[in-house]
Each structure stands twice: as structure tokens, then as C-alpha cells.
């Protein structure tokens, strides 16, 4: 049995995660949620003085906004759409008959105006664009959302529905790159407080297809994405638990995000994978939080 499966089994056996019989879709215990709540308080403590505007979007977003984002050009393999029954009574009878004999009953489902949110920041850009030009100081936003990515796996750190906490900065190139570097330094310090050994490395998103290879190379060559890596299920392949992304002016151009002087806004974000960080803590310090080192408990619970 490999390390990924054995750690997942231990999480199930302890009740920290709840098996739903779908890989990457898990219930969470109160103890697991308590770790995430405590870590989010630590995020607030570290970043709270920056004065970010908090927004909380649901795990579904406007399909038209999703289409405009260009996500399907780069990551069609990860996307999830919401479909619903829109038929007649006769269609309903046919649907029930299909279910009764074990046939595919989803053929009559139709796409709705909702798409599952792929990243916490995606609903933010059209929201801010509606306000008009950003103020002279730019914009700083605090987000948290459930996100969906279709990549079923036995690795408990690769879930299909998971929570992402983000800070998104909008402003000049210098402004947002300074923001990104500040959070890279903060991220390392936060993990040090939690007794976790980390590495920050240049990274790339999982762009799809032949054209995606060029995008991967461009992203890495320009150091647009860094990840904070922590071993969870593999020491050889540590898991990305935080990401630090500089989008240049791509979102500014796409959503017409402008600064006070009319110039196109640059954007950057820092993302915390909340389930992944909780799993990293449980893997390194044990499945019983009461037994964690006192320094770690103090950093999380005071």
C-alpha cells in the first residue's frame, strides 16, 4: 500500500476525513475544521493590518464570466459545470425509468447559468471592474471560497472540492510584485511558526494541450508563479500548499481594470490551500491535535 493511500486510510480511520466513496470528495470532522479555523485566524493576524476588503463568493459563479475568463482555453480538464433537469412530465418519467434500470439518466440534463468556481479570485475581477477605475492606492481583497477541479485522486491533498483563501492585489507592477514578495516572506515565517519545513520553488499551472506547453515555459521563464511546498504524501514530490502568482496585466486587460490615471492595472495573488495546510499539520504533528507541540498549538490557538 503506497504512502498516499495509507495516509488517507488513517484519516478515514481517525474520523478526520469522512469517506463518500468518491475520490477527492470528503466530509470533514469537527477537529479537522477546527484546524482550518485556527489557521485562518493566523492568516488574519498576519495580514489583517493590510486593510484588505473582505468578500466571500459562493462555490458557483456566473457562466458568462467564466467563459470570458478564458479558463476553458487553458484548463478544460479541470472545469465543472452545473446542469439541471429542465424537461416535461414525460421526460421525468423517462428519467426515472433510466434510473430504475441503471441507464444514464443525465442525458436530459441541461447546462445552467452557473459554473463551479475554479479559483476563489475568479468572481472578483468582474465585480471590481463594475466599480470603475481603482483608487490611486490600487485595491487589496481578502477572499475565501470552495473551489472545484476535476482531478479525482487517492492523494488526500488533491481534492476535487476544497477551500482556497486568497489575497488579491491590484495596482502598478511595482505595487503588486512587492505585495507578492512580502507574502512569500510571510508564508515562510508562518510555516516556521507551525513547525513545518518548506521550500519555495518556481512553478507552473497545468495548462492543457500542445499550446499549453508554451504557456508553461513562458510562466516559468518569467517567474510568474511560485509555490510553497510541504511534504504530505511524498517527500520526493512535496505538495503545493501556498501559491504566489503575478498575472502581469492579463486580468486588467481582460476585465478592463484601470487605475486612477487610466493605465491598466496589474494583479497578483497569494493563495492558501486550507485543506492542504491542515493535512500538512496532521501529517507532521500527528492526528491528535492535543498532542501537537506546544509552540504549534500556541501559534494556532493562542
UniProtKB/TrEMBL annotation:
InterPro entries: aa-tRNA-synt_IIb, aa-tRNA-synth_II, aa-tRNA-synth_II/BPL/LPL. Keywords: Aminoacyl-tRNA synthetase, ATP-binding, Cytoplasm, Ligase, Nucleotide-binding, Protein biosynthesis. The keyword rRNA-binding does not apply. GO terms for molecular function: aminoacyl-tRNA ligase activity; ATP binding. One of its GO terms (biological process) is tRNA aminoacylation for protein translation. The keyword Transmembrane does not apply. Pfam families: tRNA-synt_2b (PF00587). This is Aminoacyl-transfer RNA synthetases class-II family profile domain-containing protein.
Amino acid at each position: 500500500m503506497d504512502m498516499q493511500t495509507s495516509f488517507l486510510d488513517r484519516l478515514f480511520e481517525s474520523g478526520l476525513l469522512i469517506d463518500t466513496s468518491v475520490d477527492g470528495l470528503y466530509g470533514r470532522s469537527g477537529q479537522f475544521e477546527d484546524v482550518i479555523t485556527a489557521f485562518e485566524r493566523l492568516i488574519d493576524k498576519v495580514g489583517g493590518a493590510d486593510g484588505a476588503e473582505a468578500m466571500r463568493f459562493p462555490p458557483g459563479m456566473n457562466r458568462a464570466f467564466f467563459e470570458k475568463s478564458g479558463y476553458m482555453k487553458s484548463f478544460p480538464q479541470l472545469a465543472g459545470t452545473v446542469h439541471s433537469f429542465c424537461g416535461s412530465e414525460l421526460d421525468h418519467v423517462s428519467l426515472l425509468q433510466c434510473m430504475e434500470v441503471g441507464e444514464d439518466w443525465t442525458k436530459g440534463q441541461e447546462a445552467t447559468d452557473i459554473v463551479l468556481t475554479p479559483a476563489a479570485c475568479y468572481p472578483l475581477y468582474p465585480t471590481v471592474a463594475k466599480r470603475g477605475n481603482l483608487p490611486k492606492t490600487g485595491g487589496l481583497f481578502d477572499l475565501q471560497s470552495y473551489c472545484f477541479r476535476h482531478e479525482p485522486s487517492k492523494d488526500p491533498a488533491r481534492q476535487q472540492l476544497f477551500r482556497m483563501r486568497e489575497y488579491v492585489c491590484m495596482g502598478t507592477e511595482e505595487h503588486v510584485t512587492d505585495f507578492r514578495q512580502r507574502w512569500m516572506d510571510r508564508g515562510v515565517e508562518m510555516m516556521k511558526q507551525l513547525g513545518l519545513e518548506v521550500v519555495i520553488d518556481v512553478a507552473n499551472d497545468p495548462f492543457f494541450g500542445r499550446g499549453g506547453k508554451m504557456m508553461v515555459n513562458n510562466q516559468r521563464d518569467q517567474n510568474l508563479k511560485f509555490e510553497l511546498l510541504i511534504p504530505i504524501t511524498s517527500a520526493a514530490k512535496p505538495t503545493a500548499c501556498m501559491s504566489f502568482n503575478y498575472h502581469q496585466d492579463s486580468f486588467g486587460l481582460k476585465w478592463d481594470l484601470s487605475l486612477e490615471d487610466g493605465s491598466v492595472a496589474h494583479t497578483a495573488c497569494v493563495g492558501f490551500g486550507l485543506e492542504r495546510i491542515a493535512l500538512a499539520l496532521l501529517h507532521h504533528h500527528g492526528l491528535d491535535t492535543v498532542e501537537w507541540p506546544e509552540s504549534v498549538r500556541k501559534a494556532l490557538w493562542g
